[in-house]
Amino acid sequence: MDDLDLSQFEQTLCYVFKDKNLLQEALRHSSYVNEQPNEGLRDNERLEFLGDAVLSLVVGHILMQRYPELKEGELSRLRAGMVNESRLAVVADAINLGNYIQLGKGELQTSGRKKKSILANAFEALLAAIYLDGGFSAAFQIIETRFADLFGTIVKPTAIPDFKTQLQETVQQLHNETPAYRLIDESGPDHDKTFTARVSFASLQAEGIGKSKKAAEQDAARLALEMLTPENHTQAGG
């Protein structure tokens, strides 16, 4: 691959390597290296390993900054959705990375330049090369830029109200007891059942419905919370 090709790629990437060898290694697939046994070339798999860690760190960092209220599990799910093979292949395709990957004859004959796995792995290797060449800030900037559209389309996990927890805390505070739930009915075919659950506490009870037992209990808890007006508090307390 000549320097002109790499220069064009660097323009697309908006990053110029000080050490061109790092860029060349990032673009060198194992199938190509295996066909050049006497050249002493190294494929991009070691860089891919490092790039995976760099990408995970940067995306995690940005997610924590953008969503300070999200818990670890939600952050992990968001990050996993952003750094999977399909997503990385799309980002790689946007910079025409496939055109610059050095592949063996077999991979070339089977459209290797378009394979998601090859594109994703090469992109991770490229990030590692940038990290080693220009440091963390350079890698951070590239990732932030190339993933900007993806970050912009993230739909934050919908905060589903946990009515059961709210009700339990309220009832324990008011009556020093724990609400009790009971499934009282289920109807419909096996693939489309509807459940009815009842929650009881003090002298009150409420019934909720849902497409699962948990959903029915949440609905019952929601209705019970609506019942806990100041008048109900007085009545329920005796």
Keywords:
three-stranded antiparallel sheet
Could you explain how this protein is built, in words?
- A hairpin with a 6-residue loop joins β1 (180-187) and β2.
- The protein is mostly helical.
- The chain has helices spanning 3-13, 20-26, 30-34, 45-66, 72-82, 85-94, 105-109, 116-134, 136-146, 148-153, 163-175, 213-227, 230-236; strands at 180-187, 194-201, 204-210.
- α4 crosses α5 (72-82), α4 packs across α9 and α6 crosses α8.
- Strands 1-2-3 form a three-stranded antiparallel sheet.
- The radius of gyration is 28 Å and the shape is elongated.
Question: How many DSSP-defined strands?
Answer: 3
What is the string of helix and strand elements? HHHHHHHHHHHEEEHH
Query: Stretches where pLDDT falls below 50 for ≥5 residues?
Result: 231-238
Major β-sheet strand ordering:
1-2-3
Biggest pleated-sheet summary: 3 strands, antiparallel
* CA-atom Rg in angstroms: 28 Å
Helix content class: 55-70%
Structural class: mainly alpha
Please report the number of helical segments. 13
Q: End-to-end span in angstroms? A: 85 Å
Q: Tell me, what's the shape?
A: elongated
Rounded average pLDDT: 88
- The share of residues in extended strands comes to 5-15%
Show the helix and strand layout.
Elements: H1 3-13, H2 20-26, H3 30-34, H4 45-66, H5 72-82, H6 85-94, H7 105-109, H8 116-134, H9 136-146, H10 148-153, H11 163-175, E1 180-187, E2 194-201, E3 204-210, H12 213-227, H13 230-236
Antiparallel strand pairs: 1-2, 2-3
Helix pairs in contact: 2-8, 4-5, 4-8, 4-9, 6-8, 8-9, 11-12
